[in-house]
């Protein structure tokens, strides 16, 4: 089974920041938030204070993963430049997203540098209240906030650009499926990926169905199914995760297999369930036919993230900051 990891975080320098303050490494893969909570951020053996590509490459080989999508989040702190370096170093094997706080004074300049100069063709908006921008900003809507609008107008100049969004759980003010629909309407030449299957709850499938049915008419909206084991509070002994199976069956029913992307949200998610389990759980179910599983595990991420023009854009880019030295 060919596989693309559709939701991975590499961490060169841990710089997490969210509603719990700043995240400081403690070694052995552990870290502490300013409010005192200690978390195991990296699985044992993956890194003490960072999670570098050299640690992930053997895991890729062991699990038969050909490519990976590098995303950003406030949990680890944005790793934009390191992700760019990795994608350049391993052309076609990794594709990288960048992130920016749209309320930063220099946000547009940051966007321009990453898109026009460094060749990024994916941007991640981590806006959840629990782990993203809504944890330290007043509530805002992605489809209505003027600062986000300025960014979207810039991205619209690059057909095939991918906008990936984590808007958190339904009880959070950041939960905005309708905003994704409005953006998909306004920018039909862009692709949108909603992370974590819109934060499902197998006990409340009507809520998930409502979000997915809003997405259904728009072929430029897909979902990834990363971290749903964490969200559903399923553990290694629950493999292959009956609650997650209910969620994904519903997603297939409404969106079809061609709009679902497998991913893990490692490294953190691989501290709750083993990475091997996260990489193989769908194969242990009968949700998808073999051809559908090939779509979910490989073809959809290839089609959306690894567009040839998107890979080539980063490979052609020359960093002006370095070329001037």
Automatic annotation (TrEMBL):
Does the UniProt entry include the keyword Hydrolase?
yes
Gene3D superfamilies recorded for this chain?
Answer: Metal-dependent hydrolases (3.20.20.140)
Domain annotation Amidohydrolase-related: ranges: 5-306
Please list the GO terms describing molecular function: carboxy-lyase activity; hydrolase activity
Q: Please give the InterPro entries that the UniProt record associates with this protein.
A: ACMSD, Amidohydro-rel, Metal_Hydrolase
SUPFAM superfamilies associated with the record: Metallo-dependent hydrolases
Indicate what this protein is called per its UniProt record.
Amidohydrolase
